[in-house]
C-alpha cells in the first residue's frame, strides 16, 4: 500500500454548521480582510500572517504551547491528525515550521502561498517509487535542525477515530535520532465538536473556505503532547504517536 495515497470514508456530506451562519455582511468583511492579509504574505516570519488569516476568518485558536519544535541538536518530526487545511494555518500561527505535503497544495489559494513561504516539501502522493527518497530527504532535514510537520493518516478525516498512522515518516525520525512531537486538532462551535472546517472527500478548497468564512464561533483546539524519543522501530513509534494524538481527540458529530 502506498502510505501517501490513503482514502478516507469521510465525504462533504459529513460537513455541517453546528451554529447558524453569520450574516452576509460579516462574511464579505471576512473575505476582504483575508485578501488584505494574503497580499502581505512573504518569506520570513509567517506567524503573524497565519494568525492574520485566522483573525480575518473570525477563528479563535486555542493552543497549549507556542513552540512545537523540541530544542536540541536535531529538528523535530511533528505529527498530527488531519481534519482541514486550517490545520496548516494553525500550526504556522503557533510555530512557523516546514511541512511535507502533496504537490497539489502548492497551487491552492491561501494555503499554497503560506506553504511555499515556509519551505514546504511537496511530493507526488501516488508515486510509490518516490518514497525512499522522501524518507531520506526528511531524515536529512531533521539532522540539520529543520523541524517538519507530517500528517501520517495520509488524508483528512471529519473527526472521530481517524485513520491509522502510516509508518514511513517515523523511519526518518529514527534515522536522524530526532524527537517526535504528537499534536491533536479538535474543532468546535459553541463549545460543541463541529465538522464545518473539515476538508474531506472530493471537496474543493474554495467551497470549504466559503463555509469557514460563514461559520459562527469556530474554534481550533491545538494540543501539543510531550515529545517521544526516537527509539524502537517505526511501527512502535507510529503507534505511540497515534495513541498520544487520539488520547485527547474529541469525536466530531454532525
Task: Give a short synopsis of this structure.
The protein has helices at about 25-40, 45-55, 85-95, 110-115, 130-145, 170-175, 205-215, 235-245, and strands at about 60-65, 75-80, 100, 120-125, 150, 180-190, 190-195, 220-225.
Note down, in words, how this protein is organized.
This protein starts with 23 loop residues before the first helix and ends in a 7-residue tail after the last helix. The protein is of the alpha/beta class and 254 residues long. It has eight helices and eight strands. The chain is globular and about 55 Å long. A hairpin with a 2-residue loop joins strand 6 and strand 7. Helix content is 34%, strand content 15%. Residues 250-254 have low confidence and may be disordered. Strands 1, 2, 3, 4, 5, 6, 7 and 8 form an eight-stranded mixed beta sheet that branches. The longest helix is centred in the N-terminal third of the chain and has 15 residues, at 24-38. InterPro entries: Plipid/glycerol_acylTrfase. Residues 76-188 form the Phospholipid/glycerol acyltransferase domain. Keywords: Acyltransferase, Lipid biosynthesis, Lipid metabolism, Transferase.
Amino acid at each position: 500500500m502506498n502510505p501517501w495515497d490513503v482514502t478516507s470514508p469521510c465525504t462533504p456530506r459529513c460537513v455541517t454548521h453546528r451554529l447558524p451562519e453569520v450574516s452576509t455582511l460579516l462574511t464579505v468583511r471576512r473575505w476582504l480582510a483575508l485578501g488584505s492579509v494574503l497580499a502581505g504574505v512573504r518569506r520570513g516570519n509567517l506567524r503573524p500572517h497565519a494568525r492574520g488569516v485566522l483573525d480575518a476568518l473570525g477563528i479563535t485558536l486555542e493552543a497549549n504551547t507556542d513552540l512545537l519544535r523540541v530544542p536540541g541538536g536535531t529538528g523535530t518530526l511533528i505529527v498530527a491528525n488531519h481534519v482541514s487545511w486550517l490545520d496548516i494555518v494553525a500550526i504556522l500561527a503557533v510555530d512557523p515550521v516546514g511541512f511535507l505535503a502533496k504537490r497539489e497544495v502548492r497551487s491552492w489559494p491561501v494555503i499554497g502561498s503560506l506553504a511555499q513561504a515556509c519551505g514546504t516539501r511537496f511530493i507526488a502522493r501516488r508515486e510509490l517509487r518516490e518514497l525512499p527518497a522522501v524518507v531520506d530527504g526528511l531524515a536529512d532535514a531533521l539532522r540539520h535542525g529543520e523541524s517538519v510537520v507530517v500528517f501520517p493518516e495520509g488524508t483528512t478525516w471529519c473527526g472521530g477515530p481517524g485513520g491509522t498512522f502510516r509508518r514511513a515518516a517515523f523511519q526518518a525520525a529514527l534515522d536522524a535520532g530526532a524527537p517526535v512531537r504528537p499534536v491533536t486538532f479538535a474543532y468546535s462551535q459553541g463549545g460543541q465538536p463541529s465538522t464545518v472546517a473539515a476538508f474531506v472527500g472530493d471537496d474543493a478548497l474554495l467551497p470549504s473556505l466559503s463555509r469557514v468564512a460563514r461559520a459562527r464561533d469556530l474554534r481550533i483546539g491545538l494540543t501539543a503532547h510531550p515529545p517521544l524519543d526516537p527509539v524502537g522501530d517505526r511501527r512502535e513509534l507510529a503507534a505511540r504517536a497515534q495513541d498520544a494524538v487520539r488520547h485527547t481527540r474529541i469525536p466530531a458529530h454532525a
